[in-house]
Amino acid sequence: MLLPPGGGLQPALLKTLMDMKQIVFLLSAFLGSSLTATDYHSSRPITNNKRFSANAGPVGRVSIMIDKSDYELTVYDEEGWYATYPVVFGNNSLEDKKMEGDKNTPEGSFRITTKRVHDKWCRFLAIDYPTKESIEKFKRRKQNGEIPANAKIGGGIGIHGVWPHEDFVIDRYKNWTLGCISMKNEDVKDLYQYIGSGTQVTIRK
Prior knowledge:
With about 200 residues, this protein is of the alpha+beta class. Helix content is about 25%, strand content about 25%. The chain contains 4 helices and 9 strands; from the N terminus they run αββββββαβαβαβ.
């Protein structure tokens, strides 16, 4: 840039450049904070993906795999992968459930026992926690002193939706339940249509 005689910038031009610099700084700060707030799980899907098929639903028997580390619920049928949905859980630690009230989501092999329309969380698909395996782990933890001697094992675990108009908690991967698996309401409605009692559910970290 050519400088005017005397080597200085004209006051008006100098003010313009300073204003532009301030705008760039504010814009950078805004974008930086936005990325920090939204980029936590940017590599993970926030919308459900489903195998393209001419069929109305999965083929034959289905099973569910819930991966806590990836915040995903995946459905498999007799042809393999069928669908993946984003989910959230109880505690941010993602630890295995140890006792009633710890807000942890249990790990292991379970089955869907019942399903119903829920007055708060859209749909509810109950699983058979605690199983025999869950009870054995619970007893060992008591014996090892990991949990209090008077602790209870808990129950009432299932897959359900969110409060009305609160799908954003799934998009933000906000763990909010007491130990259940929570989905977006449209996703849990979709799952509810083709998942029946007896469906195998595996939960892992």
